[in-house]
Amino acid sequence: MxxxxxxxxxxxxxxxxxxxxxSTTEGSxxxxxxxxxxxxxxxxxxxEIAALLPERIASRGTLVIAAAPDYAPAEFRAEDLQTxxxxxxxxxxxxxxxxxxxxxxxxxxxxxxxxxxxSTSDIGIxxxxxxxxxxxxxxxxxxxxxxxxxxxxKDNPKDFDPDNLCGQTIGVQTGTYQEEELxxxxxxxxxxxxxxxxxxxxxxxxxxxxxxIGGKVVAFYADSTxxxxxxxxxxxxxxxxGGVRDAAPQGIVVSADDAQLTEAIQRAMQQxxxxxxxxxILGSWGVDESAGLKTAELNPxx
Length: 302
Prior knowledge:
Structural class: alpha/beta
InterPro entries: Solute-binding_3/MltF_N
Helix content: 25-40%
Number of domains: 2
Organism: Brooklawnia propionicigenes
Pfam family, one: SBP_bac_3
Distance between the termini: 15 Å
Signal peptide: 1-19
Domain Solute-binding protein family 3/N-terminal: 62-289
Mean pLDDT: 89
């Protein structure tokens, strides 16, 4: 899925105060995004896996992880606008615990992350969709499936049907894959002689969510993890309908010529899958735990 800029997503914290046709709950309050972070202090070092870590990293004592913290809930800035948080950030910390080293987020623009893998950063964890183009140049270890989802008001009071979109008013964030997809589907509605989809685009996802709660749109369309996160932050005022569409795996990126580090990261990721830590991290961020993969595959082809 296309990355979504998360500027303003922390504004969702105030969504329960929306008025004007909102179906909010009196006096309800959404959790702080900082409160959603998973405590990895209970994750134990696994000596057999830690022994696989290249000496340059083990002696340094820090695993440097490239990320673009602009994509909630995977990786974004906390309310202090400095600290990187999110399920990918928590995952990186948990990997460090298994490997017996600290972790450091090397924050940069998304487009500059991959060229720095193996030089300015040891690995990359930043919602990288696994593609043939990327695996031709890098090793990628799968850990999550992300697709697209529709969200509606709790209990779907307007009986929105995700399989019958023609004539519906749907909110979406500007510049996303989902906006393009809705435009294509709307064109198909017109070609079939049906009413076009009324697509309302907003600059930030928080505005999309606000207008769904307020009733201006009957549904929104976003990355599946973004939709799950909106449900978590709005204290049960929303729900996801229709499941996840067009899911694709994302992967941890390692330099293709670093087989030793690749094995260490793959083994550590599998450990976190097997002991339940990875599922718990996703759950703490409101993401459906079924999105988390059970096998850490190297450069999967499908």
